[in-house]
Amino acid sequence: MKTLYDVQQLLKRFGIIVYVGSRIADIEMMAIEIDQLHRSRLIDDETYQIAKLILRREHRYEEEKQNQES
């Protein structure tokens, strides 16, 4: 797992499709869903950590992009 798309595919395996409309909001909702899957023991620790790192990286990238636009 290396990209946001990979995280989306992981969530999709569990029937979870996230689309809020805002990319940052989508990333935040995906993080919540990943937390729930981990708490429910549906994904292992390594998968959880990798997914959270990817989501943090993408969230930071989107925030920087928004700050540069304003």
Describe this structure in words.
- It contains three helices and no strands.
- About 15% of the residues are buried.
- It has one domain: YqgQ-like (Helix Hairpins, Orthogonal Bundle).
- It is mainly α and about 70 residues long.
- The mean pLDDT is about 95.
Tags for this entry?
70 residues; mainly alpha; Helix Hairpins; 74% helix
> What is the end-to-end distance?
32 Å
Query: Spans of 5+ residues with little confidence (pLDDT < 50)?
Result: none
Topology as H/E string? Answer: HHH
Q: Number of helix segments?
A: 3
Question: What is the overall pLDDT average?
Answer: 97
The geometry reads as globular
**CATH arch. level architecture:** Orthogonal Bundle
CATH superfamily: YqgQ-like
From the alpha-carbon coordinates, what is the Rg to the nearest angstrom?
A: 12 Å
CATH level-1 class: Mainly Alpha
* Total beta strand runs: 0
> Helical proportion?
over 70%
Largest sheet: none
Beta fraction: under 5%
Structural class: mainly alpha
Question: How is the CATH topology named?
Answer: Helix Hairpins
Number of domains: 1
Pfam family, one: YqgQ-like
InterPro entries: YqgQ-like, YqgQ-like_sf
Protein name: Cytosolic protein
Brief characterization of the structure:
This protein is mostly helical. It has 3 helices and no strands.
